[in-house]
């Protein structure tokens, strides 16, 4: 199919952000020409590689958010994150019901006394803000030393690749034109009025507005970005189906998701078909990394995840991890995503270039909500000021523990027990394939 010469809006990137933006644009204004351009294939990025723990929370921990931004904003942000979870559940129910299954909440657990005291402080902050997040006593093995957890709701288990494809299919049904294997190489001033020229390997499109939904772009240098996002490679795995009695003992497929409170700590959930999806552990800072260091980091992560699983229940020693994969996430200085307008050099200041990224590894709900907000802003032509570049004084900013943990955990670990290791490695899978 040939690219159209022009469009009202071009959305770049067919992950959850791009899919949600295109769908919300088309739902509100079906008469517009909306084009979705994807460098690879739908859900080729993080959206096809996520572990599918859908739950609230956005930005820095609540105690830091309250201290820094005040009661009103900290409270509203949390409530927005709860609403975003509900929105994903509703959208998935409508467009991709097979991508979502219920979960009874999320337990953020303390593995150490220091983490337990942090969680207690956060529980006091939630209570002071009138938010429904409470301290719980837990029998979770990862929290054996503290028995302390924070209980979050609502939550759901999601196959993010399936969800992305469901939203894109819905957008196409509403008239959005999708072009896969069409990397965008750059943006140039258009010839008419405030238009923009979107340059791709297959030709150019003139558009009134462009939405960059590429997060950690796969084509560095080609697209304007907000400087300062830090890209990490993170890894995950999924086990073979567990025996029935073990699934029951672990709480069944709707059991709460378990997430360690530690930076890059382990997290897991059960799938509808009785597997465990696990993530966390060694990560690699992408800037300056070689393919060897990235490969070593993912091997370390998969071996580390095996050890975390073994700590959950002795019977898990007999259950193999059947697939492993890695993907990229982006961190921001304040833990908040960056969603807004860009003012790229070389383009007129009136150019409508929008961008969303920096999900800090927690984008399942936030991307979909951001897509909806971006669609509204593109349609109203909101004249907000451009996003500001961010700097990284590593010593002081809130994401520092994650980066430090990534660097520390990337150092070689003990070799994995090969007999029980993953059956296959997929360094760059196109999409996860397990039942939500
Ligand atoms: C291993 C892993 C586990 C995760 N687990 C969870 C979880 O349990 N819960 C949670 O909330 N979040 C999780 N996340 C984070 C979540 O998956 C992401 O925040 C979210 O998917 C980001 O979506 P996106 O659409 O912004 O980016 P992406 O899904 O990365 O989409 C960007 C798209 O843009 C395309 N692209 C890039 N450059 C160009 C270009 N120049 N031209 C055209 N197209 C381009 C890419 O090919 C890609 O398809 C996880 C992430 C990973 C990697």
From TrEMBL:
Pfam families: DAO. It comes from the Bacteria. Residues 412-436 are annotated as: Disordered. GO terms for cellular component: cytoplasm. Signal peptide: none annotated. Gene3D superfamilies: D-Amino Acid Oxidase, subunit A, domain 2, FAD/NAD(P)-binding domain. Residues 8-377 form the FAD dependent oxidoreductase domain. This is Putative oxidoreductase.
